[in-house]
Amino acid sequence: MDVKEPAAEVNQQMIANRLQISRATVSRCFTNHPGINPVTRARVFQFAAEVGYVHLQMRTTRSNRKKGAKRIFGVLICSAEEEYNRTDYQNPSEQILAGVTDCAHLNDANIEVHLIDPKVCSLNDPAFLQIEKLCSRWDGLLLVYPFPDPVLNHLAPRVPLVSLVEQFDHTGIDCVDVDHYKGISAVIDHLVKHGHRHIGFFTRRYEVEASWSYRRYAAFMEAMVRLRIPLAAEDIVNVFPSHEGDYESSIDYAAERTRNGVTAWVCAADHQAYDLVRSFEKRGIIVPDTVSVTGFDGIETPPDAPTLSTIVIPFREIGTIGTQRLVERAQKRFGSAQHVLIDCRLRAGTTVGPARL
Length: 357
What we know:
The protein is of the alpha/beta class. It has 2 domains: 7-159, no CATH class; 180-312, Rossmann fold (3-Layer(aba) Sandwich). It is 39% helix and 15% strand. The protein is built from 12 helices and 12 strands. The protein has helices at 12-19, 23-30, 38-51, 81-84, 92-106, 126-134, 149-155, 180-193, 211-226, 247-259, 270-282, 315-331, and strands at residues 71-78, 109-116, 140-144, 161-164, 173-178, 199-202, 236-237, 264-267, 292-294, 310-312, 339-342, 345-347. α3 (38-51) crosses α5, α5 (92-106) packs across α12 and α8 crosses α9 (211-226). The radius of gyration is 21 Å and the shape is globular. The termini are far apart.
């Protein structure tokens, strides 16, 4: 984990200055003051994670904590700093953290947020060793985004785990996620109503295997079969055994397939869809006149971008429900793991139009 600021400069006043809020507001965020807006609290925790700040109240180990003291929950966000700090797209983790901190406050608990780079796959990596030390003071741990199997296998026996927006095939990890099948089904139905029958699926490759994109692909296949819509392997991008490539080659391939008849692309995530729309336009393919594009996430529309037809995920609700489940797991350490799927809805935008003849 990289720290952007020298250790001597990382304090609450620096956080207040960077976020343009008062020092008192920052302090109240770390003490779960009831008057703090959950989104503001999430922004403070998010920035504190980026610069490596740990509040003094969070530095007492479980073994030394006095009876009746607040619980401490860790939050690990698996993301490279460059990707996490992108300003061109809304970061869903902000809303997730808002739900987490809101529920933590209601349960009289503190949270501690940390970024961990997706490249951290070895248990001997210094970044992971630092996280392992922190586990001694955590009563439970929330995971945001995919994590490598070695990390999961090592953490699961040591601390109660709840995963948010990612489902792991691990018996000891609870998961709170969106209903991918309902969301993708709504997208396909929306495209079919606009006359689309030649539909492709687009995703990208990630450093940590993104099983969420595979679940959306599986949902895509199910919806296409249910509606008896023919599907060619050539119209799938970055899912084995179809075409797989880097970012630019994947865009070029999708553009070629569009020129060969694909009238709509279902993207596994909003950021993929926005990138595809912009890249298509650079190649003379206009959305939605030439081809329609849909996403999945429901993030805010970036400046100068069209309103995307997408599935809105209630990220804040996922954060709240996941934290409440972690509270229950902390009280009953070895109870049965649960997978909870949250409802979602279609938000129609301007990136879907009638299928071209």
